[in-house]
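in:
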């Protein structure tokens, strides 16, 4: 029987969580403030309506979505194939290769951004949405591999062997048996990759060029000029998108864990 936690511990934990999320809560509340100053004067959606009237915000949102979707698709495909190779095949240097996949995860973003900028400059690649997409693919692959690899390790390989014993070839077995079993992990990895790409600022700051401003870069530029309630509205929308994708990724991960039990 599970032991109940003391009320004091529950209260202390709730207080810590409240203090951690208090700045975000204040930001969300004041995004609905009718005044442009940090004084509550009434509930209003004017700052959200103004977002649709600014072409720079819409262009930045479009850029973020293009980069996020493209980097997610490529990194999910490559990450899934790499995870399958690591889980199903033994080859020389496998341990080293697997260790290198964790380098982008543990390396500070500013180091990754500077190194990618030097790389693009060395090959004389013009900075823009293409370089941002390549940079996001580079660090998203590792996250996808980790998520999909965890799913592969919990799969029942007997189903694949049974399908091949019944006459199915490797391609048919892959699409009919392997992919459906991997799908929760693939989708969770894709959602995580999109979240990382949509929210990224540091790496994007180094590898972006003229006319390739994403939403986080635009918010940073607006903050440097002046603090206006539109920033609160944009930040709230980014928070909603991020929270929703993380929730979906976690939900698919939990369903995956239950299916493996």
């Amino acid at each position: 029987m599970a032991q109940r936690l003391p009320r004091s511990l529950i209260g202390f934990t709730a207080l810590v969580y409240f203090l951690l999320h208090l700045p975000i809560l204040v930001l969300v509340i004041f995004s609905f403030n009718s005044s442009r100053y940090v004084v509550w004067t009434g509930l209003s959606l004017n700052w959200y309506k103004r977002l649709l009237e600014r072409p720079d915000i819409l262009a930045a949102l479009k850029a973020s979505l293009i980069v996020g979707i493209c980097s997610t698709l490529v990194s999910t495909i490559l990450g899934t194939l790499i995870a399958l190779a690591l889980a199903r095949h033994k080859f020389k240097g496998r341990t080293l290769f697997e260790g290198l996949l964790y380098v982008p995860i543990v390396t500070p973003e500013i180091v990754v951004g500077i190194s990618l900028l030097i790389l693009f400059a060395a090959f004389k690649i013009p900075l823009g949405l293409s370089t941002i997409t390549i940079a996001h693919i580079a660090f998203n692959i590792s996250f996808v591999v980790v998520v999909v690899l965890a799913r592969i390790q919990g799969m029942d390989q007997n189903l694949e062997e049974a399908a091949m014993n019944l006459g199915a070839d490797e391609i048919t077995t892959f699409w009919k048996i392997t992919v459906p079993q991997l799908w929760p992990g693939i989708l969770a990895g894709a959602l995580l990759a999109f979240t990382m790409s949509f929210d990224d600022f540091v790496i994007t700051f180094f590898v972006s060029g003229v006319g390739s401003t994403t939403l986080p870069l635009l918010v940073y530029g607006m903050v440097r000029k002046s603090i206006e309630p539109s920033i609160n509205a944009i930040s709230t929308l980014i928070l909603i998108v991020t929270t929703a994708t993380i929730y979906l990724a976690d939900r698919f991960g939990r369903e995956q864990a239950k299916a493996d039990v």
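note: The CA atoms of residues 160 and 178 lie 7 Å apart.
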